[in-house]
């Protein structure tokens, strides 16, 4: 299933893993929001944790050209240390509804959420990022709507 990706941490434009993996390889990047989730600070990167009736996580909805999709999906799974069904995953890649900030439309996208054992640990003793925006923890908001150069 070829879905866009919702990125909320180090894969966002201007962040180190965006430069490493996404810069110049995306079709579009636009602000979006993931409902019913909260954000926790990890060791240099965040974790989104699903929380029914929870908060909202701010990020970017990234679309990828079809010719680059399989390679990029593999690269992102490796970065997030995700393997389908693996018991020691840090993240699980799941399809979730994401709201486009520009017009409020909803789209299904891949999201890397904290794996169940990680989510339980974060709920018990993690540091929550208030407001759900990884970038706002240190930077003022700015316009981040872009179309990548092909």
From TrEMBL:
Residues 5-135 form the Gamma-glutamylcyclotransferase AIG2-like domain. Signal peptide: none annotated. This is Gamma-glutamylcyclotransferase family protein.
């Amino acid at each position: 299933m070829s879905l866009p990706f919702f990125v909320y941490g180090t894969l966002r434009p201007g962040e180190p893993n965006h430069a490493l993996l996404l810069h110049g390889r995306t079709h579009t990047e636009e602000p979006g929001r993931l409902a019913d989730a909260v954000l926790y600070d990890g060791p240099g990167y965040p974790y989104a944790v699903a929380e029914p009736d929870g908060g909202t996580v701010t990020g970017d909805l990234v679309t990828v050209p079809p010719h680059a999709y399989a390679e990029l999906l593999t690269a992102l799974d490796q970065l997030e240390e995700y393997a389908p069904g693996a018991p020691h995953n840090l993240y699980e890649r799941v399809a979730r509804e994401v709201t486009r900030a520009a017009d409020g439309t909803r789209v299904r996208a891949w999201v890397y959420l904290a794996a169940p054992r990680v989510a339980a640990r974060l709920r018990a003793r993690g540091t929550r990022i208030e407001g759900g925006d990884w970038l706002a923890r240190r930077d003022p908001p700015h316009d981040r709507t872009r179309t990548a150069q092909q």
